[in-house]
């Protein structure tokens, strides 16, 4: 819809058009999403070079949190994402300047790369499903494939989950946006302020991830969810190709779209406030979990029978999951600069708000199971969910 219909939703006008609708649909797929050999090479080159970065670049070694059901085993991680991210930009810049690989290739091949990433993440999930590391309790069922069998699958020390969480997908999100900016510049002779603002805000989000890379170690994705198709596909295909719909939409318009200065300012303010809430609440919880000995002040946490404490101070004493609230705010700020001409440009915030509401529900169930009466006590002390 974005590429071929300027963002207009495309559905058959009447039942007798369904046949021709799907024929046309297939034409579009053939035209823009059947991968060429070049697209396959670009994607696999991308994944392999990020894997090399994870394996060979130096970085601080950090111990993860004790893993559930594994006698408190703590995995070691090398935190070199920050280095890898900037090295990637230097290499891409060199490729662009020398015209070996102009950055707009990512924009031009977007549909093809999307198909390859879909196939790659499906095959990787299948492989992890068929050959799990641990004697995983999950069986060979559809849900085992979807949710995964291993919690943290590793192959000769290579951590698949940490890799997919961050490496190929997140930087590709930023690269696709920058590629789209350059494409807009080449097409229209300038880059619109809406485009620049969205690209900057999303770039900041990705940079923030790598700057605070360690914080991923205390999240649900690493600690609770197993690694199956849901996370693998989500990280590798879903994130880069759906989170960039806004910028792609702006570039596919017939002319440069400029949002009003008021709308741009409002978007930026919502983003800044959202980011502060998101970052400070995530860091508070992460520091609390990683350095329990530094948090001894009475009245700032409660002890639980599980042996793990719960914060009742800062954001976590005011509202449950302020980090989700901040993230939702940022999500909306990334779509507002596109204006109001198509709902598709609001795909991300709508999807993300639903995801997060469900995630909050899921985490509540998980914590209730883990902490029992202590969670009920925590919920009495902190009754608000998401919104204080
Ligand atoms: P959290 O980082 O909030 O982790 C939830 C866990 O925190 C709980 O399972 C519990 O684990 C612990 N916890 C809950 N309450 C407390 C408390 N009071 N004190 C101490 N620990 C507590 O959630 P997520 O991993 O879901 O999200 C992390 C970030 O990533 C969020 O900001 C989220 O918005 C973002 N995110 C973004 C996505 C995107 O696509 N843009 C997708 C998913 C997440 P335990 O007690 O077992 O340690």
From TrEMBL:
Family designation: Belongs to the ERG4/ERG24 family.
Protein's UniProt keywords contain NADP: yes
Pathway(s) of this molecule: Steroid biosynthesis; cholesterol biosynthesis
One GO term (biological process): cholesterol biosynthetic process
Localization per record: Membrane
Alphabetical UniProt keywords: Cholesterol biosynthesis, Cholesterol metabolism, Lipid biosynthesis, Lipid metabolism, Membrane, NADP, Oxidoreductase, Steroid biosynthesis, Steroid metabolism, Sterol biosynthesis, Sterol metabolism, Transmembrane, Transmembrane helix
The keyword Methyltransferase appears for this protein: no
This protein's GO CC annotations: endoplasmic reticulum membrane
Pfam families cross-referenced by the UniProt entry: ERG4_ERG24 (PF01222)
Name of this chain's protein: Delta(14)-sterol reductase
Bilayer topology term: Multi-pass membrane protein
Enzyme class: oxidoreductase
Record field: transmembrane: 38-57, 77-95, 107-130, 193-211, 223-241, 261-278, 299-318, 338-357
GO molecular function, one term: Delta14-sterol reductase activity
EC number(s) per entry: 1.3.1.70
Species, as recorded: Hirondellea gigas
């Amino acid at each position: 819809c974005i590429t071929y219909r300027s963002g207009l939703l495309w559905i058959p006008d009447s039942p007798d058009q369904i046949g021709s609708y799907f024929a046309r649909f297939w034409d579009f797929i053939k035209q823009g999403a059947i991968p060429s050999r070049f697209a396959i090479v670009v994607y696999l080159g991308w994944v392999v070079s990020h894997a090399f970065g994870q394996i060979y670049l130096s970085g601080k070694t950090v111990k993860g949190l004790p893993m559930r059901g594994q006698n408190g085993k703590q995995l070691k991680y090398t935190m070199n994402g920050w280095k890898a991210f900037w090295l990637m930009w230097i290499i891409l810049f060199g490729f662009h300047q020398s015209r070996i690989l102009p950055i707009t290739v990512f924009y031009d091949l977007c549909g093809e790369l999307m198909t390859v990433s879909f196939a790659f993440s499906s095959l990787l999930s299948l492989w992890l499903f068929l050959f799990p590391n641990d004697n995983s309790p999950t069986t060979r069922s559809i849900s085992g494939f979807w949710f995964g069998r291993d919690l943290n699958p590793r192959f000769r020390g290579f951590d698949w989950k940490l890799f997919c969480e961050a490496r190929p997908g997140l930087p590709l999100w930023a690269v696709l946006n920058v590629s789209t900016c350059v494409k807009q510049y080449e097409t229209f002779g300038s880059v619109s302020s809406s485009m620049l603002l969205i690209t900057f805000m999303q770039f900041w989000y990705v940079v923030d991830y790598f700057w605070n890379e360690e914080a991923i170690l205390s999240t649900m994705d690493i600690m609770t969810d197993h690694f199956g198709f849901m996370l693998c596909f989500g990280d590798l295909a879903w994130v880069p190709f759906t989170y960039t719909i806004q910028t792609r939409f702006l570039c596919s318009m017939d002319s440069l779209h400029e949002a009003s200065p008021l709308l741009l300012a409002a978007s930026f303010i919502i983003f800044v406030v959202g980011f502060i809430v998101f970052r400070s609440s995530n860091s508070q919880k992460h520091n609390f979990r990683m350095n329990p000995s530094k948090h001894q002040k009475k009245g700032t946490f409660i002890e639980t029978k599980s042996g793990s404490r719960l914060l009742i101070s800062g954001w976590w004493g005011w509202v449950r999951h302020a980090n989700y609230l901040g993230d939702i705010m940022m999500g909306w700020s990334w779509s507002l600069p596109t204006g109001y001409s198509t709902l598709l440009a609001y795909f991300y915030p709508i999807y993300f708000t639903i995801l997060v509401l469900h995630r909050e529900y899921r985490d509540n169930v998980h914590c209730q199971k883990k902490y029992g009466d202590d969670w009920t006590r925590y919920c009495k002390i902190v009754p608000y969910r998401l919104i204080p």
